[in-house]
Amino acid sequence: MEFGEIIRINNLFDYGVKYSIINKLIEYNITLDKIKTSDIELIVQMADYHISSYHVNKISRILAKKGDEVYKECSVHILDYLGLSKGLVRNLKNNNITMIDLSSCNDEQMKIKYGFNQSTVKKIDNVLDKFFEEATKINNKELIVKEICEARQKVVEQKNRKYICEFCANNIMQVLSNTKEPLDLFVLSKQLNTPMDDLNKAITYLIKAKKIEATSLGFSVVRISLEEYLESINENPKIDIIKMKLLQGKTLQEIGMKYNVSRERIRQIVSKEIDKFPLLNEDIHYKIYTNCRITRKNYYKLFGYCPVEYNYLSTKYKSGKREITETDLKLEKLTQQEIDNYLYPDKDKTSIKYYNEIKKIVEEQNDYFSKESIYQLFIAEYPESNLSERNFEAKMERLDFIVNSGRNGFRYFDMDKLIDGNFLLRIDLSNYKYKCVSSLKIFKDYIVVMNDYGIKNEYELHNILRYFYENGLLNYEYICFKRMPIIEFNSVTKEAIMSQTIKNFYGKTIDDYLEYLYEEYGFRKDTFGTILSSSYSRYIEDGKIIAYDSLSLEEINRLKSILVDDFYSLKDFQSKVESMGMPFNKMTQYNTKMIGYKKYEKYYLSLKYSTLKEYFTSIISQKDVFDKNDFLDFWNNMTFNGVLNKLKSNLDIFEYQPNHYISYRRLNERIGVTKENLINLKNQLKNMFSKTIFFTMKYAYKNGYKDVFQDYDFKDCFYKGMFIYDNDVQMVSVNGTILFGITDQSISVNNLIEDILRKEKSISRYNLNHVLIEDYGIELELFELKNAMHHFNGYYCDVMDKFYITYDLFLEEI
């Protein structure tokens, strides 16, 4: 159905037609003209009976009375069709805000004029863009649609100008950040391929923002030295530690000894502070440092003796792992002579001596191969070469016929054949202008070409294209090969792509967005799913992309002033937030982090703790003595009970009376008991009753067991805690008394009664109760004693009120 007809059908909403009916008309391609000219029953049949004759008749009456208005108007309900929530559409309708009103406003005007928040503005702005895109395709636009498009055109032009300026500014920053020397306007314009007018506007913006500076030699990024920056933050209480580490090159151990703290604590302080630093002069070589394995000695060899610079880089960044290549050094603007001096200090040894010999061996490989396997084949055939594996790999890095295929290993390619076979003429890289794509995108777009030339994956394509580029054969000038398989065109980064596109997916799932990145740019879902969850978490909520609406500094400070506990239930947290006059739906995962909490399904936890388990461990461990009421809110929480039981099993916490707990720390401080003492007491009990098997603490005391805890009225539950994770001892509670058994099988009070009867053969109920109560502290009712007989074929005689180990023994006695 044409978009113009969809607009007209959505106008029916203003005349009382339900949105469900509107959707069915569009779904079954039933136009207003069909309703006017067709029989009602025919329309009902066309809608597969999903629209009743009543509703068709109602629409017919509306068209008969108000047909001209329905055909010429444009209701805000069209925004519902384009994806705006029904609640927002209803809000617009109730406030008499028309499509003309909305279309003539930019983001800021919408906020001021209608009081919309940032999130609402973004949602409306996105669907207006969709409307404008579709409406401009209509050939014969009615007057009102034409007016809306003209009003929106001006807003779109404003947005485009702003976008171009921001986009251009980002590109300027990227170019200048990677350049040692200042660049003049002409060079910048040539590198960025940007109109001079747009370039001037972006440069003016950056200079006002104090991000770049203009000198007589050109433009450069505003940076200061590390020493200058440290002087500017001299009031920081940790400044001496930072200076000792970065300027003086002291080790963490040396600094820690001076301040009497651990080296790990010093590392944490320095790491936290250095993350706050802006870009400095010392960042100039951060790319080669983070990409390659580079020692202090090699760094000095490349860039001169600069210990402060190396201290800074090695502290702030994680060093790369791969060897330095010629390409890396070219990106650092080193001369060819400097590169050769570093990579090939002894030309006679490292020149590509065995070029043809290696090529011969590689050509014979029908499939993928590894460096190690080729080295072994080479040494087997040319043992006189005496090449070490490292020197051999260094030569392989410089061979133009060996292509890295990613995880698969390496493959042989005849590059001359690719060139002669017009491979490059069959790939139009201009299709990717101002984009950052994975070479997988190019691979898929030209899959027929790939098959024709035997290129099997995106990694091979990435390295083949890079070879052509480095040899001046690519017909595309502004291209940058990043870590495989990413390729940047015109300095557009993957981060820029994600930032620009994520806003178009508000309300949709993460999977929808990752699917789009894969189809449009070739970005793999697993890799970019990780980037999305880490770097764009503010846009993610419950598996969906949300319209990110940040908290202001004032709101953050207000919330921090009342949110002082480490843990809040969902209800309590909501109550606190709303008490400050803030809508709770603003507390997204990202905003919650801004005030120091992480949002979970049923609670909020301070960022001081990585898990709820860590929090419970902390609050329990802080108390030396506590009871159930101290943690009543958590007592039925599975995680809390798991932590409590773990502390019990480690002999860190003991239940000395029912629901009353004491820490090992307190026992050790007040009574002098060690964990070794506790283990010895436990073993003493096990040894005492290894033959009798069953015991209670009353039975143990009666048979000579003694310990210090008897003087402090420690109950059975204390000893239960000592044995709770001992596989050699089983326990069961019998009417509040703990029965222990030295066995690896589960026990019950029935086993104790059976044990007593096996020794006594027969016993009166009075005597049995006397033994249980006086010896074990267990009191049982008659029905419980009688029930025990069924578990071991014992017998109870009602007449004699006596228990027998077997029925046969009862018969013998009578």
Task: Give me some keywords for this one.
extended, Arc Repressor Mutant, subunit A, 3-stranded antiparallel β-sheet, mainly alpha, 814 residues, 46 helices
Q: Share of helix among residues?
A: 40-55%
Largest pleated sheet: 3 strands, antiparallel
Order of strands in the sheet with most strands: 5-7-6
**Overall body shape:** extended
Outline the low-pLDDT stretches. Answer: 346-351
User: Helical element count?
Assistant: 46
**Quick check: average pLDDT?**
85
First and last CA, distance = 101 Å
| Total strand segments | 21
Rg is 40 Å
Q: How many separate structural domains? A: 7
Which percent range describes the beta-strand content? 5-15%
Instruction: Give the class from helix and strand content and strand pairing.
Output: mainly alpha
Structure description:
The chain has 814 residues and is mainly alpha-helical. It is extended. The relative contact order is 0.03. The chain is built from 46 helices and 21 strands. The strands form 8 sheets. Strands 5-7-6 form a 3-stranded antiparallel β-sheet, with helices on both faces. It has a 3-stranded antiparallel β-sheet with strand order 10-12-11. Helix 10 (118-135) packs across helix 11 and helix 43 crosses helix 45. It has 7 domains: 3-159, no CATH class; 160-221, Arc Repressor Mutant, subunit A (Orthogonal Bundle), CATH 1.10.10; 223-278, Orthogonal Bundle (Arc Repressor Mutant, subunit A); 283-343, no CATH class; 347-399; 498-545, no CATH class; 674-812, no CATH class.
